[in-house]
Design goal:
- The complex is a heterodimer of chains A (118) and B (223).
- With 118 residues, chain A is mostly helical.
- Chain A has a single domain, classed as Arc Repressor Mutant, subunit A (Orthogonal Bundle).
- Chain A has six helices and four strands, in the order ααβαβααββα.
- Chain A has a three-stranded antiparallel β-sheet.
- Chain B has a single domain, classed as 3-Layer(aba) Sandwich (Rossmann fold).
- Chain B is built from eight helices and seven strands.
- Chain B has a seven-stranded mixed β-sheet with strand order 2-3-4-1-5-6-7, with helices on both faces.
- In chain B, β6, α6 and β7 form a beta-alpha-beta unit.
- The longest helix of chain B is centred in the C-terminal third of the chain and has 21 residues.
- Chain B is globular.
- The relative contact order of chain B is 0.16.
- The interface between A and B is large, with 52 and 64 residues.
- The structure holds guanosine-5'-triphosphate (GTP) and magnesium ion.
- Guanosine-5'-triphosphate binds next to α2 and β3 of chain B.
Chain lengths: 118, 223
Amino acid sequence: MGFEPEAEQLIEDGPMARPYFLTGGRTRSDAGELAVEAMVAAAPDSAPPADAELRAIHELCQTPNSIAEISAKRSLPLGVARVLVADLWGSGSLEVLETTRSDDIAIVRRLLDGIRNR
Amino acid sequence: MAFETAEQAQRPVSAKVVVSGGFGVGKTTFVAAVSEIAPLRTEAQMTSAATGVDDATFVQEKTATTVAMDFGKITVEAGLVLYVFGTPGQDRFGFMWNDITEGALGALVLVDSRRLDECFNAIDYFESRNIPFVVALNQFDGAPMHNEADIREALDLPASVPIVRTDARQSQYATDTLVQLLAHILETLAASASPVPAQRPAPVVTTDMRDRAANALAAERSA
Ligand SMILES: Nc1nc2c(ncn2[C@@H]2O[C@H](COP(=O)(O)OP(=O)(O)OP(=O)(O)O)[C@@H](O)[C@H]2O)c(=O)[nH]1
Ligand SMILES: [Mg+2]
């Protein structure tokens, strides 16, 4: 099953071509990786970026949004939204508002108890 | 965490689980059932999205298919949020799975027992990445009530993977299933010797990245 096609193949094969053009063909940001659920918001007093798509994301993030929401609202593929948001985070235009946890037993226990007791 | 500043430590904490499985097994329905917000959906009409691609024989009422993801949210307590993501069902959107699953605590693999083979890809995917998962049999009308042993054999599942029953249309039932998944994740984490098992997905925001971002921000502000 082709769950992990090469980035180049995605870029060549149709609908992904234009969006990955927005990242200059990159499928990762130099700033690092953010999860799709990561909530971000424009950093206080940050100037609008020059690039049109980045500026639109920055504008959208005057109120907090997750990367998933940004992807839907801007009609960007999830992978592209992840790269562009991470770029904006790396340059200080956006702030990450939540700390994401993937392996913290104490957190899982709180989630479990909280949802079980509702 | 030792490296966190006071500001980072008081930020809200979030975690994520993924609802997965084959085409039309009820992923979107499940996310909607457990989410406190109207879930974010990225769906397309079946007519254009599924022409000649999908077997919708068993899901006749189905009019839309997920092309990107479903995104739901549960505020568990102040400052603690669980996000629930549904994967797209069609194989041709498989390239999105890595973006969706990265950093997930664990996954639910929904199964329609009339089409067991639909979930093979999902099971292989989570098994190969050591992401804890639970198999949940969705109660479709007219679906055979296989016993657990038969399902386990058909799916070639080890005893360590729980098999449960659910009904994605019923909020309480779906929430109970989510609790079963979290209990399994907790057990798996507790059983692993080191606090950060070697093959789990990397933490999403590393301290190093946070520092770099904070430094960049500080530099910009002082400039
Ligand atoms: N009988 C029954 N029908 C269900 C159940 N869960 C979902 N359905 C129905 O099955 C159909 C498919 O459900 P979806 O939630 O769209 O499935 P999906 O997995 O998101 O589909 P894709 O994203 O296209 O792969 C819909 O018509 C649902 O109403 C269930 O537990 N029992
Ligand atoms: Mg769906």
